[in-house]
Amino acid sequence: MTRVALIDYGSGNLHSCARALAAAAGDAAAIHVTARPEDILAAGRIVLPGVGHFADCAGALRAIPGMVDALEEAVLRKGRPFLGICVGMQLMADIGLEDGETPGLGWVHGIVEALVPAPGLPVPHVGWNELMIPAPHPVLAGLGDKPHAYFTHSYAFRPEDQGEVSAWTDYGAPLAAAIARDNLFGTQFHPEKSQRLGLTLLANFLEWTP
Amino acid sequence: MLKTRIIPCLDVKDGRTVKGVNFVDLKDAGDPVALARVYDAAGADELCFLDITASHEGRGTLLETVSRTAEACFMPLTVGGGVRSVEDMVALLRAGADKVAINSAAVADPALISACAAKAGRQCVVVAIDARAVDGHWEIFTHGGRKPTGINAVEFAREAARRGAGEILLTSMDRDGTKSGYDIPLLKAVSSAVTIPVIASGGAGSVADFAPAVLEGGASAVLAASIFHFGEATLAEARAALAEAGAPVRSL
């Protein structure tokens, strides 16, 4: 049975993610909530949740001794499938600009910057927005026509290479709703709160062979 | 395009839904978890629990209810009622709430808003404002609407947003329970004063009341209780009415 490491670094959506992953996995995978780097190295797949503040999340991840090294070994060198959710996706960027400049993991080149309120478009961007999927991706398979996912965020990931955006959403301007490259996948929205769409996406991730 | 959220709201007391709910053949219509499942299946965009438990002892029951609900459905859950401290918020978030609504305590001490936002991020913090028209402006009432504060609702909404509120849940006490429609001028005044989302509450009497709250009032979401609980309208009818009037809704 595949062992999925869900990284416990104090993120508020940890338990929601654990519940949704378990529901999506059924008997096919075991969800292991862990803060131990050795568990990351032993896992078949890795999920990084995240909610709130880029700098806080980056600081909390780096505060676990050996965690970033273990992640880089498992994800970048061994190629284990990785899913980052919300701030967990944003952390793949080079830099986050929430309250000053904070370095991210630098796995996907780009920056995380503030959404700017426009008339009629409040910030945070909260609610269900439609995904536009430029090219099929296994993790986004079977989401149906006009797929909608639940977003709640004030900052957005702007990747240098727009080819690494696997789903867009429109909020005054196109925003990266999902990022993909090689064995990396990230969602700005919350699959764990996106009802059937979210569970389908998580089940896809659990079966994904990059 | 971002869609208008339709949010059923359950009043919960000692772990049971009160005000009665009779829209489906549930064996136990008082169980909020069963109701949450029904609303989830019907495509609610979000769910709100308002804890009206008077006693502090009832909080444990609430946390347990939140936890069972979060296990049963995969949509955003906002919980409010009696939140007085960062610790109260954290306990609800740990139990599985995605957002916490703060009302009286935020009015009494607006620094609580900043403290909650700093702890959990502004997307978790919903500031609930209960307002009533008094002498040509809207005044905030707290403690379930019993206590006048002399505070101007529009000014306070601005301050709440500045202090880190992620959303405003705006209830018109003049309209609440009247089924005469949302208070559009109040919504308009608040939504144009802040750049965070405003949730309209109080007064929905038919599905025709939703669209004006969005299109004229500037609300990002509409919250309603009895209209859904008593089967006067389904979520599908609410979505259809909004779409018909030109307010975007989610296709399921």
From TrEMBL, chain A:
- Domain Glutamine amidotransferase stretches: 6-206
Question: Which pathway does the database say it acts in?
Answer: Amino-acid biosynthesis; L-histidine biosynthesis; L-histidine from 5-phospho-alpha-D-ribose 1-diphosphate: step 5/9
One protein family per Pfam: GATase
UniProt GO cellular component terms: cytoplasm
Q: Does the keyword Transferase apply?
A: yes
How the protein assembles, per its UniProt entry? Heterodimer of HisH and HisF.
Name listed for the protein in its UniProt record:
Imidazole glycerol phosphate synthase subunit HisH
Native source species: Hyphomonas polymorpha PS728
Gene symbol of the encoding locus: hisH
From TrEMBL, chain B:
Catalytic machinery residues: 11, 130
Recall the GO molecular function terms of this protein's record. Answer: imidazoleglycerol-phosphate synthase activity; lyase activity
Named in its record, the pathway it takes part in is: Amino-acid biosynthesis; L-histidine biosynthesis; L-histidine from 5-phospho-alpha-D-ribose 1-diphosphate: step 5/9
KW Transport (keyword) present: no
Quote the EC number.
Answer: 4.3.2.10
Q: Which reaction equation describes what this protein catalyses? A: 5-[(5-phospho-1-deoxy-D-ribulos-1-ylimino)methylamino]-1-(5-phospho-beta-D-ribosyl)imidazole-4-carboxamide + L-glutamine = D-erythro-1-(imidazol-4-yl)glycerol 3-phosphate + 5-amino-1-(5-phospho-beta-D-ribosyl)imidazole-4-carboxamide + L-glutamate + H(+)
**Taxonomy, superkingdom:** Bacteria
Principal location class: cytoplasm
Keyword Lyase, does the record have it? yes
Q: List the InterPro entries hit by this protein, alphabetically.
A: Aldolase_TIM (IPR013785), His_biosynth (IPR006062), HisF (IPR004651), IGPS_HisA/HisF (IPR050064), RibuloseP-bd_barrel (IPR011060)
The record's GO CC annotations read: cytoplasm
GO terms classed as biological process: L-histidine biosynthetic process
Entries under SUPFAM superfamilies matching the protein: Ribulose-phoshate binding barrel (SSF51366)
Q: Which keywords does UniProt give here?
A: Amino-acid biosynthesis, Cytoplasm, Histidine biosynthesis, Lyase
**One Pfam family in the UniProt entry:** His_biosynth
Subcellular location(s) of the protein: Cytoplasm
Assembly, per entry = Heterodimer of HisH and HisF.
Concerning HAMAP family, the annotation shows: HisF
Task: Spell out the PANTHER family in the cross-references.
Answer: IMIDAZOLE GLYCEROL PHOSPHATE SYNTHASE HISHF (PTHR21235:SF2), IMIDAZOLE GLYCEROL PHOSPHATE SYNTHASE SUBUNIT HISF/H IGP SYNTHASE SUBUNIT HISF/H (PTHR21235)
Q: What does this protein do?
A: IGPS catalyzes the conversion of PRFAR and glutamine to IGP, AICAR and glutamate. The HisF subunit catalyzes the cyclization activity that produces IGP and AICAR from PRFAR using the ammonia provided by the HisH subunit.
| Family listed | Belongs to the HisA/HisF family.
Q: What is this protein called?
A: Imidazole glycerol phosphate synthase subunit HisF
From the broadest rank down, the organism's phylogenetic lineage runs: Bacteria, Pseudomonadati, Pseudomonadota, Alphaproteobacteria, Hyphomonadales
